[in-house]
Structure formats: structure tokens, C-alpha cells
Amino acid sequence: MAKRVLLIEDEPNIIEAISFILTRDGWTVHTHSDGETAADRVRQLPPDMIILDVMLPGRSGFDILRDLRADPQTETIPVMMLTARGQTKDREMAMRLGASHFMTKPFSNAEVLEHVRSLVEG
Amino acid sequence: MPQRQLTGARIRSRRLDRQISQSDLAARVGISASYLNLIEHNRRRIGGKILNDIARELELEVAVLADGAERGLLEALRAAAAGQVQAGAETEQSEDFAARFPGWSGLVVGQARRLAALEERVAAMSDRLTHDPHLDTALHEVLSVVTAIRSTASILVGSDGLDPDWQGRFHRNIHGDSLRLADASQALAAYLDAPKDEGGAAFSPVEELERFLDLHGYHVPGLEGPDPMLSPHEIVEGAAGLSAGGRDLALAWLGQYRADALAVPLDQLAQAALDLDNDPAAIAEALEVPLVTVLRRLAALPVGGAHPEIGLAVCDGAGALLHLKPIEGFALPRTGPGCPLWPLYQALSRPGQPIRAVVTMPGASSPRLTCYAIAEAQGPVSFDTPPVYAATMLVVADAPVTPARPVGRTCRICPQPACTARREPSILPEPSVAPIGGP
Q1: Inter-chain touch B143–A109, beta carbons under 8 Å
Q2: What is the domain count for chain B?
Q3: Is pLDDT at B202 greater than 60 in this prediction?
Q4: By CB distance 3.0 to 4.6 Å, which of A35, A83, B204, B427 could disulfide with A56?
């Protein structure tokens, strides 16, 4: 059974491109664009890993990550954070909150694939 | 060594500079060479006719010979040297340097001041680039579109035999993203290329209000007196550069100004400020008005009178700046968190308790500032809702000579090392001064 990735991102064409490359690589890709309800969506699925954008409408990715790490149902799910801000403090905050990996836009498809595989398959 | 005693040294230095022998100068002013030698080695006091004659022969003002270069120039020179310790300036000879080369000294001081002003400008720009939400959003838009284009283009280039439907879809995506990128780039360029004479674009209604107040010098004569010539609406009506939000803020500010002007008439305030040495608490007690009203009124005194330069800052309970009247040596970030060592923020932890402190910002030539701050609950008190606090801080440039507490602007652009209040690393190199906020 294909592993499930939840992509939480609000940029439609990034969603389409990442969904395409992950699906082609054999993953089942679910997408979600609203920060407010993202944590609920995670609990409903739950996915094998999450790609989480920092700047989302409704709620920031940092807040969502904090919620996920505080919930026993979701605390161990690998989370790769995406951000347009490469500042040290953002990276440090992501890792402090329990992110599994932090990726700065613009990233390459190869990087995304490599880290998704690495985080789920070890 | 008392300055007076250095007159002889200045005479000697000037004489040697002009290549006049001791005996020649002595002869010209009618004294013996041995007596001039004693004067030059500060073993004899000099004044009156002999000093006048020597000054004339050396083509210097008597005051320069007697008192050396102006005290202000000397202090500015020493401050400039302290700001660049690594340059190894011979500070013990600063008086001699200023006396012998007043023009060059003025140039050094002028350059140091210009450098400080440029550093302040860089700090302000860095502050904006770091914390400006508009710029943050604009950059996020550009980088997100670039990411989408890169990812999509990579699929198109690296996928042989891509389904024609997907191919067409990705082509359309790239086309749409390229148009978005063009728009976002142009908007960003226009934003960064704001007219320099306006000091950059106004980012928020709060900044629009600051510009508006700056144009008025933070003093509005039309609202003074028992029967004001203008209303707040009439003043705002003719103002340029105010958005709807900026107009609302300006109206609120002018309304408060009018209420304060009624409570504390300008002539009474000006006199009390002079009589009571600008002490807000003493003025509030003398005029029987709230302290915070006096803080606002002192900051609205007209520029150019007998009063020192006065700044003001008001923040809400979260520390967000609501109003800022900057003066030389006093600045706080418009957006993002400021240095928590400022009395403005400390007042928030002790509502109702006035706080006074003498502070100074980083930089050898930064002036000492006396700050008076108080935090008070806003609006009516209610049993059912928590109070909302705001803090007001008056900043007076004429500070007494007492130990000054070092403060910064905000951590990211504060060079001070080992500060207990530091929340993030600085982008500036560490200075050669004592740490702030230490234990």
C-alpha cells in the first residue's frame, strides 16, 4: 500500500507540481490549503508524513506544528517545513518545535523527493 | 592637568608649528627667552598684554591660546576616537590637535557624525527589512512563484513522454506564474524604490501619522488656547499622504492634543517646565494634572524655545509602538520588538508606577537621555474585562551627568555583547564598550 503524504500548502501551482512528482514516485498525496483546519485534517487521515508550509492563511505552520507535537496521535509523524524565509531564527524555531526537516523556497524537486523518502523510509 | 595650565604648551606647539625660534618670539613680545621658556613649560601663568601679544604674533585668537579649542569640539573629537578605538588615535593629544588643526578637527568630527547618521539609517533600514510585514509578504509572494516555476519547469524538462494533458497544464501554470512573478517583482521594485526625499514609503497608518506629525513639528498652534483657531477635522482635511487609516489616527491624536492643551495651557506649561527643570512629576503636581498628560504636553512644546530636545514614545500592552517622536540618540523600531531595557517597556510590568532612568544608546557620540515613563490602564475600568494598558515615555536630551544605563534599539541591530535581554544574534560587529544589561 502506498505511503500517504499530506501537503499543507496554499500555493496552487506548488501543490500541483509537488503532487505530481510525489505521485509519480509512488506516494499517495493528499493536499490541504487552510491553516485553520490543517491539524484536524492530519488527525482525520493521519498521513505517514507531512509537508507543511510556514505561511498559511488562517494559521501559521509553526502553530500547527506545535499542536501536532502536543497531540499523542500526531506527535511522531515526520514533518518537513517549507518556508520562503531562510532566516536562522525561523529554522531554529522549526527545529525547536519538533520539525523533522526545514526546506527553504525555492527548492528543487529532487530535494523534496530525497527528504520525503528519507523521512518515511529512514 | 587643568586646562588653564596648558596655555604654555599651546604656545610652544603653535610656535614650533610656525617655525619661530623661542628667542625670536620672546623678542617680538618684549620678554626674555628664559621667561618664555618657563611659560611654554607651564611654569608661569600668562595673561593680559603678554598673552595678547603672543597670540597676535602666532596669529591665533587669544581665546584659543588661553582656553584651547572649544570644549564641544574636544569632546566630539574624543567621542569620534572612542568610536574607532582600533584606529589608535592619540587621544591624549586631542587638545593639541584641535588647537593646531581646527579645520581638520572639524572635518574629523563632521565625518564621525555623518558616519553615526549613516549607521542610524542603515539600522533603520535593516530594521524595516527584518520586520516589515509588507516586505515579508512581498518576498514570500516572489519566492513562492519562483518555487512553483522552478518545480514545474523541472518536471517539463526532466520528464520524457509526459502526458500531453499534463504538459499543457504545466505550460499554462508556468505562463500564469510568470505573469504573477512579473507583477510581484514590479511591485517589490516600486516599493524599494520609494522617493528618497520622503525617507521611504510609509508602511502603515502609524507611519503616516508620524510623517504628518513630523511636518507639524509635533506642535499644533491651531489647537492651542481656550478658543482654538482650527478643529482637528480642519487640520486633517488639508493634509496630504494620509490614508483612511492614517486620517483616523491623526484625528484621534489631534483630539487628544486638544484635550491636553485645554488641561495644560501652553504658557503655563512652558513656564513650569523652565521653573521645574522639565521634571514631569513636579510639573504635574504644580499644575494638578495627570503625569501622562504632562508627558504628552512636554513632547508637544514648540521647537526652538528654551527647552531641550524632547522625544516621546507610546506603546500598547504588547509593546507595539503606537506613537514615536524621535530625537537625536533616541529611536525604537516601528515594527517588531524593541530593546526591553527601555523604561517604556519596563513601565508595562509596573502599571501606575512612574519610572525614571538616564540611558544612552550604543555609539560613542550617543547623547545621554533622561526617560520618564508610566503605564496606565486605558478606557473605563470593568469587573468583567481585563484592563488594557498603554505606556508613555518622555525622552529629554538634556540628561544630568550620572551613570547612564546602556540600551539598544532592537537586538538584531544592537552591537552590545553579553546582554541578558538579548533575544537574537546581532548582525553588527561587537563594539569595544562595556556590555549592557549584564548581571
Answers
A1: no
A2: 3
A3: no
A4: A35
Of B139, B146, B148, the CB nearest to A17: B148
Max intra-chain CA distance, chain B: 108
**Rounded CA separation B194/B205 (Å):** 17
Strands A101-104, B368-378: pairing is unpaired
Q: How far is B182 from chain A (nearest CA, A)?
A: 16
pTM above 0.95, yes or no: no
Q: pLDDT grade, residue B194 (50/70/90)?
A: low
Between B414 and A86, the more confident residue is: B414
Which residues of chain A does B425 touch, with a Cβ-Cβ cutoff of 8 Å? 88
For chain A, helix, strand, coil in percent to 5 are: 45, 20, 35
Are B91 and B81 in contact by the 8 Å Cβ rule? The answer is: yes
Question: How many angstroms separate the CA atoms of B138 and B136, rounded?
Answer: 6
Nearest to B139 among A13, A84, A112 (CB): A84
The predicted complex's ipTM stands at: 0.90
Of B117, B132, B127, nearest to B333 by C-alpha is: B127
Residue B402, domain member (yes or no): yes
User: How many cross-chain Cβ pairs, A to B, lie less than 8 Å apart?
Assistant: 62
**B319: domain range?**
311-439
Residue corresponding to grid cell 566630539: B76
| Residue A34 scores a pLDDT above 90 | yes
Give A55 or B44, the one with higher predicted confidence.
A55
Q: Which three cell numbers stand for residue B112?
A: 564621525
Contact indicator for B330, B359 with CB cutoff of 8 Å: no
Put simply, the answer to whether B151 touches A84 (Cβ < 8 Å) is no
Q: Could you tell me if B139 and B31 lie in one domain? A: no
CATH class, domain A4-121, is alpha beta
Choose the final residue of a domain: B198, B224, B245.
B198
